[in-house]
Amino acid sequence: MARPSKAPERRAELVAAARHTVVERGVLNLKLRDVADHAGMSPGSLLYYYPSLSDLLEDVQQEAVERFCVAREAAVAAEADPRARMRAMIGSGLPNGKNDELCVLLYELGTIARREPAYSARHIALYERQVRGYVGILEAGAATGIFDLTDDPVTIARNLVTLEDGYGLHLTQAVPPLDRSVAEAMVLSYARVSTRCSLEAPA
């Protein structure tokens, strides 16, 4: 009987090693040996599972995008009222600080998207998936009369995601110019104006 392949398990371990290495060292000066050292193997052994560092980082990006989106979708799904769903969506989209591993990872990998089409495509998919999440909340709120939208749902949704990205980038700097509570309040402020709703839970 043939022994089961350990390749999927080993590749998952390498994705985890690369994820931690990117967060620790940054992606711009990252070398294959850095990841291999973190994984406890030689660069040659790593190349047996991934033909290049770029191939490995593509899997890192894909895994990070999925984890981020699933967490946001779960936070929203736990709420029924559109106001609570909006607050949950905003709260789940901002980094907890400069040491938020997942958000730092996404921002680091986003720098590659400026030059590499494959990375750019996943970055766009992340953006559009978040926009769709907001659109669903906005449309549900408008349909029930809770929201009175000042613009079409897609425009509002895109502005919300872009605000999150901008504030999130500041929150992950070595010296953040503001804290998370302020950033969240700013995004909520725009959401209140654009929905003409206080977003507070009904009494």
From TrEMBL:
InterPro entries: BetI_C (IPR039538), Homeodomain-like_sf (IPR009057), HTH-type_TetR-like_transc_reg (IPR050109), HTH_TetR (IPR001647), Tet_transcr_reg_TetR-rel_C_sf (IPR036271)
Organism of derivation: Amycolatopsis albidoflavus
DNA-binding region: 31-50
KW Transcription regulation (keyword) present: yes
Entries under PANTHER family matching the protein: HTH-TYPE TRANSCRIPTIONAL REGULATOR PKSA (PTHR30055:SF226), HTH-TYPE TRANSCRIPTIONAL REGULATOR RUTR (PTHR30055)
UniProt key word Thylakoid: no
Protein name listed in UniProt: TetR/AcrR family transcriptional regulator
Domain of life, source organism: Bacteria
Domain annotation HTH tetR-type: ranges: 8-68
Keywords associated with the record: DNA-binding, Repressor, Transcription, Transcription regulation
Record-linked PROSITE patterns: HTH_TETR_2
